[in-house]
Amino acid sequence: MKVGVIVFPGSNCDRDMYHVLTDVFKVDAQYFWHEKKLPSNLDAIILPGGFSYGDRLRAGVIAAHSPVISDVKRLASRGMPVLGVCNGFQILVEAGLLPGVLLKNTSLGFMCKWTHLIVENNKTLFTNRLKIGQKIPIPIANGEGRYYADEQTLAELKKNNQIVFRYGEEINGSTMRIAGVCNKEGNVVGMMPHPERAVEPQINPIDCKPASLIFESLFNTIGVTH
Amino acid sequence: MSTYTVHVTIENKPGINDPEGETILNDLVLKGNYSSVTKIRSAKMLKFTIKEKDKKSAEKKVRKLCDELRIYNPMVSQITVDVF
Question: What is the ipTM score, two decimals?
Fold first, then answer.
């Protein structure tokens, strides 16, 4: 089994993600530069956080036109698990793989702090080991993390159970405190907080088990036991 | 072919709040005693220089590329296009 970690110019959480996959969870992972083709024998794709193209124009919009995105779209349409974290979430939204949009935080500033998530949907490929309502201590680190969906999109999200995570507190002005959403099929998930920064006791001051379950849900999905 | 300058102003739609404009209004302009100012909306402007046969096709080409390449996000933003 192999997880592909996509690297864009300006990605900066790709190493953290690779480290967590290979050193913490002992699964095979490989970096893929955004101009490369993706092999179809991957088991999952992760778009890591960072500042692709320096957030020029709008966070994620330029990376969303990268050559690799057409492969991500093709593989996602076949049901491959795809996770976008932070800038990866922004890219998935700008690429049209996930609904909504991420706007500047109401604070107007870059926010870097610990918060917690509440699990809203445990049927996705990345949340099937979690319980509805479960709390996940996790850090955010973003400037454009305010999730926004218009009324029609929000109604669709609710109808199709596409709201995956909500913040446990009012944090950045996101619509309904939404922190993560999925596509209708539940195989593509995007989230603003950083699970890869929350799975090791050395750097998680609260509890690293809940965030670990996001990764373990993926491994459960693709048949890897831990 | 002539050269045209096309200004594309990208701003949040009326219903979408604009914390940057609000901060400039409340924490700079009103505190600076310009009390007749009632609203500020922030925007981003891109200035295109483009070679096209006439003004109309310059505007059309720029509008097309803004839509196709998602220069603005239609869920939250709108554009105003001015050709010079």
Answer: 0.79
Distance CA A31, CA A33 (A): 7
Please report the pLDDT score of residue A224 as a whole number: 75
A196 is catalytic: yes
Q: Do B73 and A64 touch (CB under 8 A)?
A: no
B66: domain CATH number?
Answer: 3.30.1280.10
**pTM (2 decimals)?**
0.92
State which residues form the domain around B26: 2-83
Compute the nearest-CA separation of A22 from chain B (Å).
Answer: 36
Asked if residue A112 is part of any domain, the answer here is: yes
The fraction of chain A above a pLDDT of 70, given in percent, is 99
Backbone angles phi, psi at A202, to 5 degrees: -65, -30
* Residue A226 counted as domain residue: no
Name the residue type at position A5: V
Total domains in chain A come to: 1
Look at B76 and A58 and tell me if their CB atoms are within 8 Å: no
